[in-house]
Amino acid sequence: PRPQRPCDAVGQSGAMGGTGEPGTPLPLMPLLLALALLSPWGCAGGSCPPRCVCASNILSCSQAVLSSVPAPLPRFTAVLDLSHNNVSRLRADWAPGRLAHLHALLLSHNGLSFVSTEAFVHVPHLRHLDLSSNRLRALEENLFSDLAELEVLLLYNNEISTVDRTAFDNLGRLRKLYLGQNRIARFPLELLRDGSRLPQLALLDLSANRLRSLPVGELQALPAWLRDRLYLHGNPLACDCPLFQLVARGRRRRLSAVMDFQEELQCLLPGTAVSVGILALAGRQPLNCSEAREAVLEAHLGDSVTLSCDTRLRGARSRHWVTPGGERVLEEGGNGSAALLANGSLQLRELRPEDAGTYACWVAGPLLNETLYVELLVHNFTLHGPHDTLNTAYTTLVGCILSVVLVLIYLYLTPCRCCCCRGADKAPAPRDDSINSSVLSATPNHAVGVPGEPCRSRSASTVGAGQNGRFKAGGTPQPPPRHGPKAQRKVSDPDSVSSVFSDTPIVV
């Protein structure tokens, strides 16, 4: 005889007048009948696969020594647990029909080494996929592209060494991605750069892999709510100061990925195999790293800047900014020069010197609040093109130096105006009393030389002539110059310098 279903037993009990034996009342029979009729495994439902346990829309086949997915699978299955079995290959035909209700598929601990790129065509509404603790070696192109509603993907404790950048295409709702304890030497972190490929991702676990370097600049640019759940511990990272500043910034912000795994955040010193704590690099040779200042922005007069509210609270209910002057900038706008953007950033236009200072961003979340500070430095000169213009002090200094150089050139490098000052037998010209009188005078004081005679100053040859050709009545007559090595120098005119640099006009 065929196995008796619960409906048959209930039907027979009902035919006996509600008693299992003649004359024995069973008050629970109406309740069991109702449960059997409502259960998907009841009279109108399918049969539970062998070696599986069925409860409502949950199908559990864990630890059933299965080498393949049992068939047929009821179409109303919502949770399918196939963990701890021997299903080594997941082909495209594992689900012969569309399982529109399936939202959780558990395949961990199966020795799974192959997953077809068409394996998830019949489960478009899957939200939770567990492929952990298997033998997967690569994530192929467009492997999960059919799972547009997937939210949690567990791939930890595999042998994955290659990750194709298109493997996570079309996963617009993915929130948590676990890739720890694999052999990944490079992960395409550019998927997180602009937030368009994985816009909802809030947790990325890359711990215990083979990462040796990180694009620290790109990671610093990630929003804080994603860096709060970016796990990088347990990798053989090379020590450098940018890496230290990234981790130190996470410690200052109390990010979970840093605070919960401080001892496991290790790196290798350059040229050695010595592993040290990343946070222990502060002031340590040979790197001697120091922490960078938090959220400091530099700008110039007239610029427009945007201050980011880098909060780790995702889904904040409200936020507002407070300027250095104590003015509140709310969501509905600002005072004309400051405005709050849709993403919570503060935009400042036409910067002025008084706009410099520390700005505070107040964020209210569902569970806690957070306050962020951004220091703005405004330089007191404008920026034109790729280079800065010279400020006033620097321009003045350069002008003074150029003026002194020109005066010295004019004083000492003025060429002789006599064209006849050549010949080896000419006598040395008498030295003038005042260099300034001969150089700076508006009236030429060099006479045109006579051929065969040495050049002489007109002031030296004219009796009684004074500075700039003026007659000096009280001037001291000068004796004729002596010739020879011990010739005395001519007595200098005491008024020569003062007459040149005096403010009194000179009358000729």
Any chance you could write out the topology, listing elements then pairs?
Layout: H1 6-15, H2 29-38, E1 53-55, E2 58-60, E3 79-81, E4 89-90, E5 104-106, E6 114-115, E7 128-130, E8 138-139, E9 152-154, E10 162-163, E11 176-178, E12 203-205, H3 216-220, H4 224-227, E13 230-231, E14 237-238, H5 241-252, H6 256-259, E15 266-268, E16 275-277, E17 296-300, E18 305-307, E19 318-322, E20 328-329, E21 338-340, E22 346-348, E23 357-364, E24 369-379, E25 383-384, E26 387-388, H7 392-412, H8 435-439, H9 458-461, H10 496-501
Helix pairs in contact: 1-2
Structural commentary:
The chain has a domain at 297-379: Sandwich (Immunoglobulin-like), CATH 2.60.40.10. The strands form seven sheets. A nine-stranded mixed sheet has the order 1-2-3-5-7-9-11-12-13, with no helix packed on it. Strands 17-24-23-19-20 form a five-stranded mixed sheet, with no helix packed on it. The relative contact order is 0.04. The chain is an alpha/beta fold. Mean pLDDT is 74; it is low at 1-45, 385-389, 431-477 and 482-508. The protein is elongated and about 110 Å long. Helix 1 (6-15) packs antiparallel against helix 2 (29-38). 16% of the residues lie in helices and 17% in strands.
